[in-house]
Design goal:
The structure holds two protein chains of two kinds.
Chain A: E1 2-11, E2 14-20, H1 22-27, E3 33-37, E4 46-54, E5 59-65, H2 69-75, E6 82-83, E7 85-90, E8 101-107, H3 111-123, E9 127-134, H4 143-148, E10 152-157, E11 164-165, H5 169-177, E12 184-188, H6 191-201, E13 208-211, E14 227-230, E15 233-236, H7 237-240, E16 243-245, H8 251-258, H9 262-284
Parallel strand pairs in A: 8-9, 8-12, 9-10, 10-11, 12-13
Antiparallel strand pairs in A: 1-2, 1-6, 2-5, 3-4, 3-7, 4-5, 13-16, 14-15
Helix pairs in contact in A: 5-6, 6-8
Chain B: H1 6-21, H2 29-34, H3 45-48, H4 61-69, H5 78-81, H6 89-98, H7 101-111, H8 115-121, H9 133-137, H10 147-161, E1 176-180, H11 184-195, E2 199-203, H12 212-215, H13 224-236, E3 240-242, H14 253-258, E4 264-267, E5 271-274, E6 287-289, H15 290-297, E7 317-321, H16 325-336, E8 341-346, H17 357-365, E9 369-372, E10 374-381, E11 387-400, E12 406-410, E13 416-419, E14 422-425, E15 429-431, H18 434-438, E16 463-465, H19 468-471, H20 476-502
Parallel strand pairs in B: 1-2, 1-4, 2-3, 4-16, 6-14, 7-8, 7-14, 8-9
Antiparallel strand pairs in B: 5-15, 10-11, 11-12, 11-13
Helix pairs in contact in B: 1-4, 4-6, 6-7, 6-10, 7-10, 8-10, 11-20, 15-16
The chains are: A alpha/beta, B alpha/beta.
Bound molecules: flavin-adenine dinucleotide and FE2/S2 (inorganic) cluster.
């Protein structure tokens, strides 16, 4: 069980929470994630990357976007409420060393897990070039925090409502073309974005690490629900990952698998909208 | 075996018992062999395909006593030799025949901690019952004394009385033991070590206790209430539980000793990493490991489609690959979740199936189709990556291999298509990688199973291991047996340390 000690809405559907979790705060490293449930009996297991941790306070920070019934339930919890199931830190930590120059690309909510990695890379002596992007201005998160640790910083939006009007792959390509091409790239965001980042860097042979957010159940290597195809081999994201060589990941298969339960999700979303409407009607009466 | 109405079975047993009980002390072996072997009453096959309630209903008192009268009380009790925890089988059965159920319960508990579970899930036909002289005389293992069913009867009887005896705990010793994993191995270690007065904490990765018994074996075979009961007994003994705690990640295994002050640790983390076939189409949407499918349905309650937030794949035609208990559970769960057709596809023949006989019979009664000597070649998908069919190869039995079993050989060109929308893979498990991944000093074999000595001690001082993480995917009773042995070694280690301290 873990208490919510802080909650903040970052944009329309994006929330930040600080959770009491002293053991996880002590052990976690950049790149790792937690799994939580908002109901011990009937809740779904939601994997979320650890965005930050404060060992002194004994807390971890999660940032999540409401995408379905379970994340919606989570967003309705408030400061002082308890999250009945919280387990972690899970997954392999990011391998951090001084690689030289690293481009960190974050899309949408993916900026949250990118932040601790960029921070650790900076601390290890890397030159950090950061590109963050989102569909529009409202969906840009953690801009200041990312800027603070970047040697070079680029913001872009799909619709041009903020920063450069471009997809993140555009500046990424320019950077790869530079005389001093980067030693490595890290891309975290929606699967399509990671796929195209990997495609962008491939011709320049810039090693590109991606962080995969597959469907998960246990998170300890027992069920195989999180499996992905990496370089023709089956890998389990929860124990072998979540980070993999983006040039080897079969993104198309992964994206199909992410849609396994879309009908169920639609139905739950529908039910939850109905409930909201009923609640609204009741409030009106 | 065909399905008999439970009431008919009960009435028959009542009549027969009345006839035999009056002469119970004068029965000759010949008379005992003549007593009809008792069938397990079960829920109606069609009805039970729609619910999660337990299929096997358990013997009535009359059935139990009648079945107990069939035991020859052999001097040379081979049944006990084949029980991994050496229960005094003739002893407890004699008590049932005499009508002293408490004595029967106490006799079993001397050796086994979880009789209501073992009575339900042990593979009796390859253990105690395999060498039962009654079955041998009648030339049918299934006609041997129903030892497991009697064990279950006694345990259920005790539970129904409402006063399960909580084992006595000796005064506190000040020693602390950590148990990692709450499967049968871990639970047994916790009980046996706690009895000696040591402080015990069980660390479990999931939010609920019980291991595979909770997340894998379905309710229709092992109701949750029985596991709850066992956990409750441990709770009353003062065992502490720490759920949502992944040893290796939340805390390093060795830190439990170095930082948290535990004097010994038992690792019972079970099997892990389900195997896949390595064939084309295996990552299509609609292909699941049986582990995932069952965990969703059981632990995450996806069976309750309305209330649970965990989704489960909607299937019409399901192929289950494999022939073990896990395959039977997955097949029968798919049926209960609404599949119209469920096929079990197995490479060998029925004789080689590792599943318990009772489960195979029950699955057949429920309408599950078995396809023996068949193995998939590839899985085909629709445009959006969903399973639509499976290409299957036929096999025949060839020459016997080293173990004497006739090896299945593929028939070239025998490919045919099976229309399915879901494939559940249940061909076994590798080892759980977490502990070895995060504990560099731990010696494991080439399959990743933890290496232990004859006392279950690992390569690291004060750390013991047992159950599936040592044996590979095995059984509940073998896990318990290893737990027993580990607990004994841990208790010895701690007793020695205490002796040194007081000198
Ligand atoms: C579907 C199914 C049906 C089966 N049917 C039968 C049957 O009919 N008869 C039979 O005898 N056997 C059966 N088995 C096998 C039997 O269940 C296992 O052999 C037995 O449960 C093994 O016990 P265990 O204590 O070693 O581990 P498990 O029961 O596997 O328990 C291990 C526990 O450790 C936890 N864990 C893992 N890693 C960590 C970690 N790092 N930190 C903390 N906790 C951790 C897991 O979450 C789990 O709860 C079946 C198995 C399955 C999957
Ligand atoms: S989530 Fe189950 S194996 Fe990874």
């Amino acid at each position: 069980m873990s208490r919510i000690i802080h909650k903040e809405q970052l944009s329309k559907d994006v929330f930040l929470m600080r959770l009491e979790a002293p053991l996880i705060a002590e052990e976690r490293k950049a790149g790792q994630f937690i799994i939580l449930q908002t109901d011990e009996d009937l809740g779904e297991r939601i994997p979320l990357t650890i965005a930050d941790a404060d060992e002194d306070e004994g807390s971890i920070t999660i940032i999540f976007q409401v995408v379905g019934k379970s994340t919606n339930d989570l967003s309705h919890l408030n400061k002082g409420d308890d999250i009945p199931v919280l387990v972690g830190p899970l997954g392999m930590p990011t391998h951090i060393e001084n690689f030289g120059t690293v481009v960190c690309v974050g899309g949408g909510i993916g900026v949250a897990p990118l932040h601790p990695i960029a921070q650790a890379l900076k601390k290890a002596g890397n030159k950090v070039i950061t590109i963050i992007g989102a569909r529009n201005k409202d969906l840009i998160i953690l801009e200041d925090k990312m800027k603070e640790i970047a040697d070079e910083f680029i913001v872009c939006t799909d619709d041009g409502s903020y920063g450069r009007k471009a997809l993140v792959t555009e500046p990424l390509k320019e950077i790869c073309k530079r005389e001093e091409k980067p030693n490595m790239a890290i891309a975290i965001g929606p699967p399509v974005m990671m796929k195209f980042c990997a495609e962008t860097t491939r011709p320049y042979e810039v090693f590109t690490q991606v962080s995969l957010n597959t469907i998960m159940v246990d998170g300890t290597g027992m069920c195989g629900g999180c499996r992905v195809n990496v370089g023709g081999e089956v890998k389990f994201v929860c124990v072998d990952g979540p980070e993999f060589d983006g040039h080897k990941v079969d993104f198309d298969n992964m994206m199909m698998r992410l849609n396994s339960y879309k009908d169920f999700e639609k139905k739950k979303a529908h039910e939850c909208n109905l409930e909201l409407e009923v609640a609204k009607k009741e409030a009106e009466l | 075996m065909s399905h008999e109405n439970p009431e008919t079975i009960a009435d028959q047993a009542r009549e027969w018992l009345a006839e035999y009980i009056v002469k119970k002390d004068d029965l000759k072996p010949k008379d005992r062999l003549a007593i009809p072997s008792q069938e397990m009453p079960a829920q109606d096959p069609i009805e039970r395909g729609k619910n999660l309630d337990e299929v096997a209903l358990g013997f009535t008192m009359e059935q139990a006593r009648l079945e107990a009268l069939r035991c020859l009380q052999c001097k040379k009790n081979t049944c006990v030799d084949d029980c991994p925890v050496a229960i005094d089988i003739p002893g407890f059965i004699k008590h049932i025949a005499d009508g002293d159920m408490q004595a029967a319960a106490d006799t079993i508990k001397e050796s086994s901690l979880l009789p209501s579970i073992c009575g339900r899930v042990c593979p009796q036909e390859t253990q105690c019952q395999e060498h039962c002289k009654v079955g041998m005389a009648l030339k049918d293992i299934d006609k041997g004394v129903g030892i497991g069913r009697l064990e279950r009867f006694v345990a259920d009887w005790e539970r129904a009385t409402g006063n399960i005896r909580v084992p006595e705990v000796k005064p506190a010793t000040g020693k602390k033991v950590a148990v990692v994993g709450s499967g049968p191995a871990g639970l047994v270690v916790a009980a046996d070590v706690r009895r000696e007065g040591h402080d015990v904490t069980i660390f479990e990765a999931f939010h609920k206790m019980g291991g595979v018994m909770r997340y894998g074996i379905p309710e229709f075979r092992l109701p949750n209430e029985i596991i709850d009961q066992e956990i409750d007994t441990l709770n009353k003994m003062g065992v502490k539980f720490q759920t949502n705690y992944v040893v290796g990640r939340t805390r390093k295994l060795t830190d439990l000793i170095d930082k948290d002050g535990f004097d010994a640790v038992f690792v019972g983390t079970g099997a892990g990493l389900p195997y896949f076939m390595g064939i084309e189409g295996e990552n299509l949407v609609g292909v699941f490991s049986a582990n995932e499918y069952l965990t969703r349905a059981n632990l995450m309650k996806a069976f309750d489609k309305k209330e649970s937030n965990t989704p489960i794949y909607e299937s019409k035609k399901v192929a289950v690959l494999g022939g073990g208990n896990v395959a039977m559970d997955a097949a029968r769960m798919a049926l209960r979740l609404g599949a119209e057709k469920v096929y079990v596809v197995y490479r060998r023949t029925e004789k080689e199936m590792p599943a318990r006989n009772e489960e195979i019979e029950h699955a057949k009664e429920e309408g599950i189709e078995f396809h023996f000597l068949r193995n998939p070649k590839r899985i085909l998908g629709t445009e959006d990556g969903r399973v639509k069919a499976m290409e299957v190869l036929k096999y025949e039995l060839g020459e016997p291999d080293d173990s004497g079993r006739r090896r299945p050989v593929v028939i070239e060109g025998s490919e045919f298509m099976m229309e399915v929308d879901t494939v559940l893979v249940s061909i076994g498990n590798g080892s759980n990688p977490l502990i070895s991944q995060t504990t560099p000093d731990m010696s494991v074999n080439k399959w990743g199973n933890i290496k232990v000595d004859e006392k279950q001690k690992s390569s690291i001082n004060k750390i013991y291991a047992g159950g599936d993480i040592v044996l590979g995917a095995a059984t509940v009773i073998l896990a318990m047996g290893e737990g027993r042995r580990a607990a004994k070694a841990i208790n010895e280690q701690l007793a020695n340390e205490l002796a040194v301290q007081s000198n």
